[in-house]
Amino acid sequence: MKNIFRNAAMALALITAAATQQALAGGDAAAGEGKVAVCAACHGADGNSLAPNFPKLAGLGEKYLLKQLQDIKAGTRPVVEMTGLLDNSSDQDLADMAAFFASKPMQLSGAKEIRLRVNAGIEVDGLALGQKIYRAGNPVVGTPACTGCHSPRGLGNEPAGYPRLSGQHPDYIEKQLRAFRAGERVNDGDQKIMRQVAEYLSDADIKALANYIAGLN
C-alpha cells in the first residue's frame, strides 16, 4: 500500500512539473553557433563530447538545455568546470546556445556487456538489470520506470523539459544519478523528481542503468 501511494505521488509530481514549467523564450540556433566557441573544448563543436566525464549536449532538448544553462549561471546547479563561463551571457545568449546544441544530432556512445555484483554477492547480467530498471523500475522500493519521463527509446520529452538520455556517456549518467541520490544535485524542481528516483538505487543499479541508457536509440 505504501508503494502505491508513493508511486501515485510521484506520478502527480511529474504531471505538475510538466504543467507548471514556465514558457521560455525561443532561441536562434544560427545565432547560437557563434556563441558556443567556449563550450567546444569540453563538449565538442557540435555538442558531441569525446570525453566521458563531460556530457554530450547535442539533441538534449532546447527547454532542458536552457534551464541547465540558467541554473549553472545562477549557481543553482554548481558545475566547477563552468565557474564564471556564463557570467557575461544574456538570457537570449543562453537561449541561442541551447537552440544550437538542441538542433544537433547526438552520436551514440553504445552499451557494453557487463557483469555486476548485486546484493549478497550475486553476479548478474548488467545489461539485463539496466533494461529492467529503465523499463519497469523497482516496485519493491517504489522506484518508477525511466520511460515515464524519458520515453521508451530514451529520447526525452521536449515540451515537458525532460532531456534525451539515449547515447549519453555512461560515466556522466552514473555521476549525475549518484549526485541526485546524495542530494548534491538539487535542480530537479520542488517535486524532487530525480532525487526521489535515485534515492533507493544501489551502486550496481546506477551502473547498470547508465550502461543500458548509453546504448538506447
Descriptive notes:
- The protein has helices at residues 2-20, 29-33, 40-43, 62-74, 91-102, 126-136, 147-150, 170-182, 193-198, 203-214, and strands spanning 115-117, 123-125.
- The chain has 217 residues and is an all-alpha fold.
- It is globular, with a radius of gyration of 17 Å.
- The N and C termini lie far apart (35 Å).
- Residues 11-24 have low confidence and may be disordered.
Output the keywords.
single chain, 217 residues, mainly alpha, Cytochrome Bc1 Complex, Chain D, domain 2, 2 domains, two-stranded antiparallel sheet, 10 helices
Total domain modules: 2
Please name the CATH topology of the largest domain: Cytochrome Bc1 Complex, Chain D, domain 2
Cα-to-Cα separation, first versus last residue:
35 Å
Largest sheet: 2 strands, antiparallel
Give the H and E element order.
HHHHHEEHHHHH
What is the secondary structure topology, with strand pairs?
Layout: H1 2-20, H2 29-33, H3 40-43, H4 62-74, H5 91-102, E1 115-117, E2 123-125, H6 126-136, H7 147-150, H8 170-182, H9 193-198, H10 203-214
Antiparallel strand pairs: 1-2
Helix pairs in contact: 4-5, 6-10, 8-10
